[in-house]
Design brief:
Elements (H helix, E strand, L loop, with lengths): L1 H10 L3 H24 L18 H84 L1 H9 L10
């Protein structure tokens, strides 16, 4: 009987005790709310498949649109790059053709210079022959000298 009376005394709360407990619970709730305000919720590195939160459709559509725009810009840049490569290829071909043309012209110039030198040497040779023939004819007689003076002396034909 003593134990039953003791347990019955322990379980009985007075109105003050009950109010004190309610106040204490309210204070704990307020404290918890204050602590939650100071906390920052971070994303977990580990994804829980059950608690995976699907993004709202607006964000998803916006990201899809951004990806589409980026892909379109990427494709435009690739096309531009291909065009530039083709243009570079054509310019290199044109450059090689012009270099070949230039080397051909340089070879022609060298050939013309050699030909000019050859013609100059032929002219010098003919002058020497003419002076020798004039000197030999002047010593050989007045008859040939008069022919040379009259312009009847035949000169060797000039080759072209």
């Amino acid at each position: 009987t003593t134990s039953s009376t003791a347990s019955s005394c322990d379980t009985e709360f007075t109105k003050e005790d009950e109010q004190r407990l309610k106040d204490y619970i309210q204070q704990l709730r307020n404290d918890r709310a204050a602590v939650k305000l100071t906390m920052l919720e971070l994303e977990s590195v580990h994804i829980d498949p059950l608690s995976y939160d699907v993004k709202p459709r607006g964000d998803s559509q916006r990201l899809d649109l951004e990806n589409a725009v980026l892909m379109q810009e990427l494709m435009a840049m690739k096309e531009e790059m291909a065009e530039l490569k083709a243009q570079l290829y054509l310019l290199e071909k044109e450059k090689k053709a012009l270099e070949l043309k230039l080397s051909t012209r340089e070879a022609q110039e060298q050939a013309y210079l050699v030909h000019i030198e050859h013609l100059k040497s032929e002219v010098e040779e003919q002058k020497e022959q003419r002076t020798r023939s004039l000197s030999s004819t002047s010593s050989g007689g007045k008859d040939t000298a008069s022919k040379v003076g009259a312009g009847q002396l035949s000169l060797p034909s000039r080759r072209a």
